[in-house]
Amino acid sequence: MLGEGILKGLAETARNAVGSFVSKDRLTTVEYPEERLPLPEASRNFPFLVYDGTDWEKGLRCVACQICEKECPPKCIYIDKSKDKKPDAFGRPQIYPAKFDIDISVCMSCQICVEVCPFEAIKMDTQYELSTDDRFGGLLLDRKELAKSNEYYHQIHPTEASEVDAKLAAEKVKADAKAKAAAGAAAAKAAAAAAAPKPAEAAAKPVVLADAPAAKPQGEGD
Amino acid sequence: MEEGLKIELGKQGVFVTTIEELYNWGRKNSVWPMQFGLACCAIEMIATTMARYDLARFGAEVFRPSPRQADLMIISGTVTKKMAPQVVRLYNQMAEPRYVIAMGACAISGGPFKQGYNVLKGIDRYIPVDVHIPGCPPRPEALLQAFMTLQKKIEEQPLTGEGRPRHLDAEAQGEFPVPVQGEHDLEPTSNKLVWPLPVVIR
Amino acid sequence: MNLVFYVLAGLTVLGGLAAVLLKNTVHCALALTVAFAGLALLFLELDAQFAGFAQILVYIGAVAILVVFAILLTRGSETPEDGVFSHTWLAGLAVAAAVFAVLGWAVIQSAPALTHESAAPVVTVNQIGNALLGRYVLPLEIVALLLTAALVGAVIVAMHEKEETK
Amino acid sequence: MVSTLDQIFVLLKHWLVGLLPSVLQPAAGVLLSVVAIVCVFPALFALTVLLERKGLGRMQNRLGPNRVGPFGILQPIADAIKSLTKEDIVPLRADALIHFLAPLVLVVAVFLEFAVVPMGRNMVLVDMDASLLFFFSIGASTELSVFMAGWSSRNKYSLMGAMRAVAQMISYEVPLLMSSVAVVMITGSLSLVKIVEAQNQYTYGLPHWNIFTPWGCAGFVMFAIAATAETNRSPFDLPEGESELVAGYFTEYSGFKFALFFLGEYLGMFSISGLGTALFLGGWSAPFSFLWWVPSWIWFFGKVMLSICVLIWVRGTLPRLRQDQLMNFAWKFVLPMTLLNLVDVALWRFLGEGWLRWVVCSAVMLVAYVAAALTGLRRDHIGPRSYRYAE
Mutating which of D147, D158, D324 best tests the C interface, going by the most C Cβ atoms within 10 A? Predict the structure, then answer.
C-alpha cells in the first residue's frame, strides 16, 4: 500500500528513539574519555621496544642489528649502533642502540619490524592517544619513549607475550645447554691445553661468556 | 582576573567570567567540521560520528558541506599532489576562526607514500595544522582525543598579545597561496611562512 | 493624503524608476518587486486588505519570481557590454506614453475622482467573494479560461520542444 | 483564577501599557507584542535545535550533544557565540548589497508571519479579516529572499540551489494553499482567529477540530507534506542537498548571515506549524472539554512543539528525494488530491449533518487514495528515469 514503507521507517526510528532510553542495545555509544571499548588482543598501533627487568636502558632486548630499519617499508625507524658494548639483561655484553627513533608520523603500523626482529625486541603497542600539536617533537619517539617493560607487553597482548616468553625460555635453555657444552668443551680444551699453555688466552673469552648466564639462570622468565 | 579570587567567588555562588573565556568557551564547544574525506582515514572519521563513538556528544556532528560555515578541517587521508591545491583552496575559503586536524600518517607526512612522486609530504607544508593524529589509520577514539586536544588548545588561547589566534592578529596571513602544478612538482613546494624547514637533531 | 501615502508613493516610484534605469536585469527585477510591494502597501493603506495581499501573493510571489526565472534561463543576468538601451527605445517610449495616457484618462474619468467621495466603504473578503462568484462570475470564468488556455499552450510548447531534442 | 492564568500575557501587556501616558499606549502595545514574538521564537529556535540534535541522535542509537553544560543544554548558546563571532565572508564578485539583504528579508518575512497566528485566546498580534491571505502572501516573499541569496553569491551551487528551492516552493505552495482553502470553505472566513474559534466546540467532550473529519484528515496530511516541502525540511531538503549542491543557496554565507538563514528556516517551521495548528488542530483549543482549565497558550505551544517533533522524526527517518520525484509528487499526487479534497469539503458542507456525509466523504478520499496507490504513483512512475546526456 502507498505510504506503507514510510510508516515502517517511522516505526523503526521511533523504536530506536524510545529504546535508547530503556535498552543498552539501542544506545551503543561508548562515551570515550570516561569509558573505553576494550581493545581486541590483536589490536596494534605503533611499535615499542621491550625491555626485561626494571631498568629500561639496561634491559632493552634490542641489539641494534638494524634489520627492522632496513625492512621498514616507509623507512620510519632510525637506529644508531653503539660503539661500545654494555651487558644486557642477562649480563652478556651486547651492542645496544645508541639512538632508536621511530617517526610515528610516518609509521603505517604494518608490523613488519616485529616480524623480522630475531630478538623479540620490538612489539606492537596499542596506545592510540598520541595526538599532539607538536609536529616534530611530539611525533618522533626516541628510545626512552619507546621502551616499555615486558610486564606491559603481557598486559596488552597476554597470549602473544606468553608465547614469546616460552620461546625465549626455550631458546635460553638451548643456549644454556649449548653454553654448558661449550663450557664443557672449553674446560676439556683448557684441561687439554694445560699441557700446552699457548692457546689458553684464546679460550678464556668463551668461558666468561658462557659463565655469565649460568650464574643467574632465573634472570628472565617472569 | 586572579584564579584564587575567582574560585572564592565561585564558592560564594558568584560566577564570573571574562569575554575571553566566554568566547573561547563558545568556539571550543561548537567546532563544526567540514564534510570531506580524502582517503581511508575518512572511513574512521565517519565511524567517529556514528553511534559507537558519537562525535555529536561534543557538539561537533554538524558536518557543514560548505567551507564558509565550517570551523574545522579534518584532513583525513592521503593528500595527493593533484588534490593539494584544492585542499588549500578549501582552507582559504573557510571563515576564521578555523582549525585543521591532520589525521593519519599520510596527512601529516605522506606516510607510506612518502617516497612516492605523487603524494604531498604532509599538508602542513601549505597550511598551518593545529593537531596531528598519528596512526594508519588512527582509531576513532584517537580522533576524539585529538578533538579534545584541539578544544584544550582553543581554551588556552589568549585573545591578545603573544599567541593570540590568527584571526585576531592583524599581521597574520589570512589567505594562503594555493600551489599550482609545475613541471615536476607543486610550485611552490611549500609555504615558507608556515613551513620553516625543520632541523631535526637526533 | 498623509505622510504614509507620500512615503509609499515615493517607494513605489523609486522602485519603478530603478526597474527601468538599472543596468543589471536582475537588479531591475528586484527593483520591480519593490515597486510591487509599494503598490501593495498602498492598497493596504487604503484598507483594501484583499487587494493588497493578493498583490503581494501574485506579483511578488509569482510574477517577480517568474520574471527572475525568465532572466536567468535566458542568460540575461549578465550586464550587457554595450548599454542596456534598446535601439527601438523611441517606440517603447511611445507605447509607454500611450499606456500611461489610457490609464490616466480612465482614472480621471472614473466616478470617485469626479465626485470626490469622502471615504470608501470597508469591503470584507466575504463581499469580494460573493461579488466575484455572483455578479462578476462571467468575467472571472473568462479570465480563468484564458489562463487555462495559456497553461495548455505552454505545456504543448514544452512538449513539442522535448520531442525535437529527442 | 483560571481565566487569569489563561489571559496572563494579555493582562500583563495591558498592565504594562497602562503604566505609560495614553499618547504612547497604542505604539507601546504593538511594540510589546512584537518584542514578545522576537524573544520567544528565537528562544524556541535554540530549544528546537538542541531537541533536534538530541532527538536525531536517539533515533540513530547515539546520545547527541551532552557535554556542554548539564545534558548539553548550553550547546545552542555555544553555537550562537561561535556563529555570531565567526568571520563574515562576502565573495569578491558577489553582489554585496543583495547578498547582505537576502537573510534580512528572509528573517523579517518569517517574523511577519507570526503576526497573524493566534497563540492563545485573545493572543494574536493582528486580527484581520484576511489573515490567512496575509500569511501566504508573506510566505511567498521568502522565495524572493532565497533567490536573492542564490543569485547574489555568484556561485554556481548557490544559484542552482536557489533555482531548485524556488521551483520547489512554488510547486508546493499550490497544494499548501489548496489544502488551506478547504478549511476556509468550511469556516467561511479567512481570519485565523475565527477559524480557531469555529473549532473550539465540543460534542460529547470531543472537539470539532478539522483533523477529525474525513476531508480534514486528508487535508492535514497534504498540508503537512506541502509544509515540509515549503520549509525545505527533509525529505524535501533538496535545495541544500549537500551531496550535490554543497549547501544550496546559502553556500557562500558564513557567520552571522548564515545564522540568520538558519534562524529563518526554523522560524518558518514554527510559523507554518502554527498555521497548521490553527487550521486543522484547533489552534489553542483543548483536546477534551474537561481540560478547558489549562491555559490556551499551553495548548498552542504544545501542539506546535508536537508538530516540530514530528518533523524531526520524519527528518530522522526519510532519505532525500530526487528532484524529478519531488516535482512528480507535487504535481501528480499532492495537487490532485488537494483539489479532490476541495470537492470533498464541498460535499461535506452540502450533505448537511448526519452519518451520510461521513460515509460519503471518507469514501471519496479513500477511493482516491487507493486509486493513486494502484495507478498514479506506482513504482514505474516514481522510479528510475532515463537520462539524456548533453552532446
Answer: D147
The C-alpha atoms of residue B84 and residue C117 are separated, in whole angstroms, by 75
| Cross-chain Cβ contact B141/A73 below 8 Å | no
Q: Which amino acid makes up residue D360?
A: V
The residues spanned by each domain of chain A are: 47-169
pLDDT value at position C78?
Answer: 61
Q: Which residue has the higher pLDDT, B177 or C79?
A: B177
Predicted confidence band at D8 (pLDDT cuts at 50, 70, 90)?
A: confident
- Which residues neighbour D267 within 8 Å (Cβ) at sequence distance 6 or greater? D41, D42, D45, D107, D110, D111, D113, D114
The nearest alpha carbon in chain B to A36 belongs to B141
Contact A1 D373 (CB under 8 A): yes
Question: Is residue A46 within 8 Å of residue A107, measured between CB atoms?
Answer: yes
Work out the mean pLDDT of chain D and round it to a whole number.
Answer: 84
DSSP 3-state of D376? helix
pLDDT of C98 reads 94
Q: Which residues are registered as beta bridge partners of A208? A: none
pLDDT at D320 exceeding the cut of 50: yes
Does A215 have pLDDT greater than 80? no
Domain C3-82+123-165: CATH class, spelled out: mainly alpha
| C neighbours by CB contacts (3+ pairs under 8 Å) | D
Q: Cβ–Cβ of C65/D166 closer than 8 Å?
A: yes
- What interhelical angle do D192-199 and D255-280 show, nearest 10? 50
Nearest residue of D to residue A27, measured between CA atoms = D61
* Alpha helices for chain D (secondary structure H): 2-6, 8-18, 25-59, 75-85, 96-113, 131-152, 156-187, 192-199, 214-230, 242-245, 255-280, 296-317, 323-328, 335-351, 355-371
As a whole number of angstroms, the distance between CA D40 and CA D35 comes to 8
The contacts of residue D306 (CB under 8 Å, 6+ apart) are none
Radius of gyration of chain D (CA): 22
pTM of the model as a whole: 0.82
Residue in D with minimal Cα distance to A8: D317
pLDDT digits (tens, 9 = 90+) for D348-383: 888 878 788 888 888 888 888 888 777 755 555 555
Q: How many CB pairs under 8 A join A and D?
A: 44
User: Between chains, do A29 and D61 touch, taking CB under 8 Å as contact?
Assistant: yes
Considering the domain A47-169 in this protein, what is its CATH number? 3.30.70.3270
Report the C-alpha gap between B65 and D295 in whole angstroms.
43
Is the CB of B109 inside 8 Å of chain A's CB atoms?
yes
- Output the tens digit of pLDDT for each of chain B's 202 residues: 566 776 777 666 666 667 778 888 888 888 899 988 888 899 999 999 888 888 888 888 888 888 888 889 999 989 999 899 999 999 998 888 889 999 988 898 888 888 888 898 888 888 888 899 998 889 899 999 999 999 998 888 887 777 777 777 777 777 888 888 888 888 888 887 888 776 666 5
CB contact under 8 A, A27 and D62: yes
| Closest to D247 measured CA to CA, from C113, A152, B70 | B70
Task: Supply the ipTM of this predicted assembly.
Answer: 0.79
Q: Please indicate whether chains B and C are in contact, defined as at least 3 beta carbon pairs under 8 Å.
A: no
pLDDT value of residue C144 = 92
Interchain pair A21, D316: CB under 8 A: no
CA pair distance D153, D93, nearest whole angstrom: 8
- Parallel, antiparallel, or unpaired: how do β-strands B131-133 and B99-103 relate? parallel
pLDDT for residue A212: 43
Chains contacting D (3 or more CB pairs within 8 Å): A, B, C
Minimal Cα distance from A33: which residue of B? B145
Are chains D and A in touch, 3+ Cβ pairs below 8 Å? yes
How many inter-chain contacts (A to B, CB under 8 Å) are there? Answer: 110
Interface touch A131/B145, C-beta < 8 Å: yes
